[in-house]
Specification:
The chain contains 11 helices and 8 strands. The protein is an alpha/beta fold. Bound molecules: zinc ion. Zinc ion binds near residues 8, 149, 208 and 262.
């Protein structure tokens, strides 16, 4: 299995997050991933990433749920793909019969689904705090355990205040997600990720991107190594540098390093080529390729 924890799905208008648009639809997205050898992905909606209203969040999260094959109005059963969120916590969703009927995709919106391939993620925006907390509850009830990738710089909010800790709004999101057993996947600075991990030792974080320069990569790797509640998704420019993945596994340990590509922005095949050729044991490679993300998502 090859499990990519960092994929951006289509926005509500069908567009993808890409420097120059070439991916036409969700079928294209999945075909590209499969051609690279990817067998499963965590997908968040590119539209929710740029949410300007609370409604944008709901619409985008519904797109991710629909891509996974579970209509947005239905809470999937434990027998389906969806695990309970983290640490043996039981999913607290209502039975399917107690929730509203499935909402249909609006005209022009992606209607195809890829069950077993797409694992949906929930996005939130602290600028819409009440809606975000409700979205976390809705996601957890569906068995959705992954929150992110949260990109505050895109959506227009900070994770932390200049004086140190999480902003009041983001603190509420971390607390609620953590209480629900969810994983927070953050596009965060090295130092602010360390501060959040210190402030919330029981929360589970994944920091996106291994770094750019040699020094930047080493700093991020050392921060993760010293914070046991932080995992690292290796997407980004530094992952292609021979030796950097090996450095991450040596210092952090193979259990907290995850394959992430940042597709549809970056090519999953380039990241996979480096993982496959890296000086790792077979057991370490399997952990990076799929076991670690599956453990984070699993019961
Ligand atoms: Zn990303």
């Amino acid at each position: 299995m090859v499990f990519d924890c960092h994929v951006h799905g289509p926005a509500e208008n069908g567009t993808f997050w890409q420097w120059h648009p070439v991916t036409r639809d969700a079928g294209d997205m999945v075909r590209y991933l499969r051609d690279c050898g990817v067998t499963r992905v965590v997908v968040s909606c590119a539209g929710s990433q740029r949410s300007r209203t609370a409604e944008d969040l709901v619409i985008g999260n519904d797109i991710a749920y629909r891509l996974s094959g579970d209509p947005p109005g239905r809470v999937p059963s434990r027998a389906g793909w969806a695990p309970a969120c983290g640490r043996g916590r039981e999913a607290k969703g209502k039975a399917s019969s107690e929730v509203s009927p499935p909402r249909q995709a609006p005209a022009g919106q992606e209607k195809r689904s890829f069950p077993g391939f797409v694992t949906p993620a929930c996005l939130v925006n602290p600028n819409f705090l009440e809606a975000s907390l409700a979205e976390l509850e809705r996601a957890a009830a569906r068995g959705v355990c992954w929150v992110g990738e949260l990109c505050g710089y895109i959506a227009g909010y900070p994770f932390t205040s200049p004086t140190g800790g999480a902003t009041a709004q983001f603190a509420e999101i971390v607390a609620r997600a953590s209480a629900l057993g969810m994983v927070l996947h953050l596009h965060a600075g090295t130092e602010e990720m360390g501060r959040l991990a210190d402030a919330y030792p029981r929360a589970r974080f994944v920091i996106a991107h291994i770094g750019d320069s040699a020094q930047h990569c080493a700093e991020r790797i050392d921060m993760v190594a010293s914070h046991p509640n932080v995992h690292m998704d290796i997407s980004g420019a530094g992952s292609e540098r021979v030796g950097i993945l090996e450095l991450a596994v040596t210092r952090i340990g193979a259990d907290r390093v995850l394959f992430g590509s940042d597709f549809t922005i970056n090519d999953p095949g380039t990241v996979l080529a480096r993982i496959q050729r890296a000086y790792l044991t077979d057991a370490e490679r399997e952990k990076v390729l799929h076991e670690n993300v599956a453990r984070l998502l699993g019961p």
